[in-house]
């Protein structure tokens, strides 16, 4: 008070706006404590979601590079179509199958439509449910995982499957198969109650897609000329390793959203710090997988195999996806590195079984996904190897058997394989009437 008497009245008046601003700032800060977690978690879902969406481009580029030029347009068509179908099917019936608590969202179409309405435009904080995140962001983020599962199947069955039977299978996978098995863990189902742990989907997404692809590969059979009568494997090089490398880098980038967004919260210092830890571990595992494949192919084959290095990085990413939070950077290196080793040995193993996997999706997503899931107890005291194995077997048996049934039905009713002539000449002209590289084919 004594000090105030020494300050001129005009000076005091000039300070009043500053005092008012400080009071407003304090009130705003207090308000952010209430709405901040909702805002930040919603933002995490949106950013994570569009990063995972970008993985769709990664799969498209990877597959376009690893198939022959006469089949590139078909692969690109499959990839954009499967994402669009997944988006519709997951909205139509998938989301409510995956989250049983969402079955009775009010709406004119009743329970068949998972998300009948989003929040109203210009939603006020007072009207929002601030305990989590917006419905739109949650649905958007979860949809991307569903679409990723279908992308895994596409590459395995390339160069000999008809377009429309594949897309019908995609509708069943994204609308029914994936949502049901994912609900067992992420929907609060029996695996969740048992203590099964799969942070971002090494098994729920990647191995599930791998099991669906394996079933399809068995029913479909290998490409013409892939295996000789004597049992030898004939290499069939892809058309563009630059595209395949670009696709791998895109997938690597998208994986930060895949794993980081699966923290499912960003409203506290602890949450956002955990996201940064997940990013670092994810990156380390990818790097370790690539280096492991790099060194191992040099040792085993006498030369580095770029396709193995690319898949080694992806296998490292798949391996760490089951638990990217709790490991140290060193353990992330070990987990990812083993994923890279798995790819180098699993690819020729499949060839011995005459299972033709064009892009190596089964070793990368199925086998490395199983490894990553079973490895969770190494860094997470809350899980057991027995529970993890039960989870893998349950999901694997369900997805593989149901997928096998669907593939057999499609084969019996409309056929799933193109004719021998179409396969030899390429699917692009027969299925679509256009080529990815017309100037080269005519040269």
What features would you describe in this structure?
- There is one protein chain.
- The protein has 443 residues and is mainly α.
- It has a single domain (35-114, 134-441), classed as Ammonium transporter AmtB like domains (Ammonium transporter fold, Orthogonal Bundle), CATH 1.10.3430.10.
- The protein has 16 helices and no strands.
- It has helices at 2-6, 9-66, 72-98, 135-156, 163-183, 190-194, 202-220, 241-260, 269-301, 306-321, 329-352, 361-374, 385-413, 420-425, 427-432, 438-441.
- The longest helix has 58 residues, at 9-66.
Walk me through the topology.
Blueprint: H1 2-6, H2 9-66, H3 72-98, H4 135-156, H5 163-183, H6 190-194, H7 202-220, H8 241-260, H9 269-301, H10 306-321, H11 329-352, H12 361-374, H13 385-413, H14 420-425, H15 427-432, H16 438-441
Helix pairs in contact: 2-3, 2-4, 2-8, 3-4, 3-5, 4-5, 4-7, 5-7, 5-13, 7-12, 7-13, 8-9, 8-10, 9-10, 9-11, 10-11, 10-12, 11-12
How far is the N terminus from the C terminus? 92 Å
Give the biggest beta sheet.
none
Rounded Rg = 25 Å
Uncertain stretches = 1-13, 18-30, 101-111
What is the CATH-assigned architecture?
Orthogonal Bundle
Counting DSSP H or I runs of 4 or more residues, the number of helices is 16
Determine the CATH superfamily. Answer: Ammonium transporter AmtB like domains
Could you tell me the strand content as a percent range?
Answer: under 5%
Helix content: 55-70%
> How many discrete structural domains?
1
**CATH classification class:** Mainly Alpha
Please tell me what the overall shape is.
globular
Find the count of extended strands (DSSP E, 2+ residues): 0
- What is the average per-residue confidence, as pLDDT, rounded to a whole number? 89
CATH topology: Ammonium transporter fold
**Which series of helices and strands comes N to C?**
HHHHHHHHHHHHHHHH
Backbone structural class: mainly alpha
